[in-house]
Amino acid sequence: MREPGAGHRRRKVLLEAERQQLAARARAVLDANWRGSSTVPSRSLYPHQWSWDAAFIAIGRSRVEQERAQRELESMFEAQWSTGMLPHIKFDPQVPDDAYFPGPGFWQSDRCPASPRGVLTSGITQPPLHARAALEVWSHASDRAEALAFLRRLYPKLAAQHAHLAGWRDPEGHGLAAIVHPWESGQDNSPLWDAELDHLEIPPGSLPPYQRYDVRHADAADRPSDAAYDRYVYLAISFREQRYDDRALIEQRLFCIEPPLFNAIYLWSELALAEIARLVDAQEGPHLVAARRIRDGIVRNLWDPEHGRFLAHDLRTKRRIRKASVDAAMPLLDPELPEPMAGAIVDELRSPHFDPPAGVEHFLIPSYDLTGRGFDRRRYWRGPVWINTDWLVWRGLRQHGEHDLAGEVEGSVVRLIERSGFREYYDPFGAQGYGSQDFSWTAALLLDVLATRAGEARPA
Ligand code: 2M8
Fold first, then answer.
1. Catalytic residue among 196, 222, 424, 427
2. What is the 3-state secondary structure (H, E, C) of 253-281?
3. pLDDT of residue 460
4. pLDDT for 19-44, tens place per residue?
5. pLDDT band at 338 (very low <50, low <70, confident <90, very high)
């Protein structure tokens, strides 16, 4: 293994004034994206509320403003379906129809009996980071009584969200949750999903004409290809015909995958749910049992001993997807991940798959294997560095005592933002920013990193 920590990647030394200035800029981004009761990920590209974005945003916001952090999560849960499913988008009725595709007219959630009255949403979900976010909001709160009341209001909704995943998304009883669409993964355009999308046959005439609006707000070279979009739309239309009935979505097996990222977050949140249950005088036991099941599912079904790495498991082909992505590092979020597995993740992050030879200026952590077929340094989820996946891995590394690598990831986060602003994603080599500008989770998670660092700098 090579010497870790090329100079440009080490933990960035920040003067207090620089830290405060960066934090003020981050807060200004969040304030500009605030819409009265929630935050848009981006004013141009994503003008509604997104599910896992809301969780990241609440985590960062809780460092500076308890009330808005709570509001962010409570607003998102107004979109929850009676099945417990938390949709991946809650639409803002004030936003014109041609501001985002696919919008509410495409999803037609109001035709589904389980959707919430008077709130238009998508019909699929996203990684369940919300219980963890709620716990973070509570733990940073200055008004503890208000934070406890917030947890009491949210707890049954969070529990229903998890019960939906356990009850409907685990057809094989693996203890894991399966996703039915790349949009559910959060890493929509990752090469991880290529083979499954290629396998989809779109019957002639089944795809209505549609207009992409994303390429009006971002360079087409940064965004998914038209061929990928056709497949996303085809899957969503097939689900719409079934009124997004989970049983049908799972049974069809059009796209049905158990990814490490989704499930590691699910586990991390289930552990948070146990803590929340304790705080609100509910039973923590069922959540600890559920967490154990998810942990066993991850270790039994997603660990590939041959490659020494976690891999997504495809329920259609019954095979693991043998590709390396940042997704594979997420089981570090489990505090009880067996040490040899945690060690294998760290070794892989330091290998040429994610870390080019010393001397080449680069930033951690590319979203996809630098040596893999399909790697693209600028295209959405196919290689660029994303601050949310960096932040998740950073938290996981710290939890496992891997402070050197955590410091390098933190250094990359700070340098990327200093060089290129609050972008949606960044070139792992040139630091150039891509996708949207003034992107909310980039700003929010920087606030968390800076606050963590300030807390550590304070004398005990
Ligand atoms: C991206 O996904 C949306 C679809 O949900 C899109 O491309 O239109 C992804 O990066 C996703 O993870 C994220 O939640 C969303 C909003 O930031 O954008």
1. 424
2. CCCCEECHHHHHHHHHHHHHHHHHHHHCC
3. 47
4. 999 999 999 999 999 999 999 999 99
5. very high
Q: 89 CA to middle of ligand 1, Å?
A: 9
Give the pocket of ligand 1 (CB within 6 Å): 41, 46, 50, 52-53, 88, 183, 186, 188, 214
Which of 276, 257, 96 shows the shortest CA–CA distance to 182? 257
Q: How far apart are CA 358 and CA 89, in angstroms?
A: 41
**Ligand 1 atom nearest residue 388's Cα:** 12
Contacts of 440 (CB under 8 A, 6+ apart): 29, 30, 33, 39, 40, 41, 42, 53, 56, 57
Residue 404 annotated as catalytic: no
Give one DSSP letter per residue of 10-43, joined into a string: SPPP--HHHHHHHHHHHHHHHHHHB-SSSB-SBT
Query: Which protein residue's CA is at the shortest distance from atom 7 of ligand 1?
Result: 188
- State mean pLDDT over 360-370: 95
Give CA–CA dist 455/460, Å, rounded.
9
- Global pTM reads 0.97
Helix, strand or coil, per DSSP, at residue 184? helix
Q: Specify the ligand 1 atom closest to the Cα of 440.
A: 17
Give the three-state DSSP class for 46.
Answer: strand
Q: How far is the CA of 69 from the centre of ligand 1 (A)?
A: 20
Give the three-state DSSP class for 90: strand
